[in-house]
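Page 42, continued from yesterday. The earlier attempt failed because a stray header line got pasted into the input along with the sequence. Redoing it now with the clean sequence only.
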Amino acid sequence: MKRRDEYILKMQENLDKLNTMLNEFEDKAGDRANKAQAKFMEEKNKLKAQAKQINEKLNDMRVATEASWEQMVDSTEALHHALVASLHYFKAELKSHKSTKEEK
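This time it went through. Structure tokens are written below.
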């Protein structure tokens, strides 16, 4: 039980950090042009959906039996890695858009 609780806590902390980063991006993107804003909102919604999936997996883990929760670890890790990769890509796109805008 202790190992599961530690894992869930670690993943929840990671998810909270990623959500904080996403909110910071949202604040920074508030002054973007309409087209860029629409693209930003679309990407943000995808990231929020991925975060929601991880949260649902963590909730499932909390109520799972000792034997079954470990079977959920691989899929939760895969979702987490996908979210991190998407967030880094999104961050790079925001920087790219910002530097392109500054060059004009």
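Notes: The mean pLDDT is 82.
Reminder to self: strip header lines before submitting.
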